[in-house]
Amino acid sequence: MLSNAMRHELKIDDRTLSYLDFGGPGRPLLALHGALSEGAHFTALAADLGEQWRVIAPDQRGHGDSDLASEYSRAGYTADAAALLEHLAPGSPVPVVGFSLGGVNAYYLAAARPDLVSALINIDAPVETPLQDGPSFWDFLHDLPYTAPTREELLAALGPLAEGTGPFLRPLPDGSGWRLPFSPQATLCTLAGDDGSRWDSWLASSCPALLVHGLRSDVLSRKQAGEMVAHRPNTLYAGLDTEHYVPFQDPKGLAEAVRGFLATL
Question: Has this prediction a pTM greater than 0.90?
Answer without folding.
Answer: yes
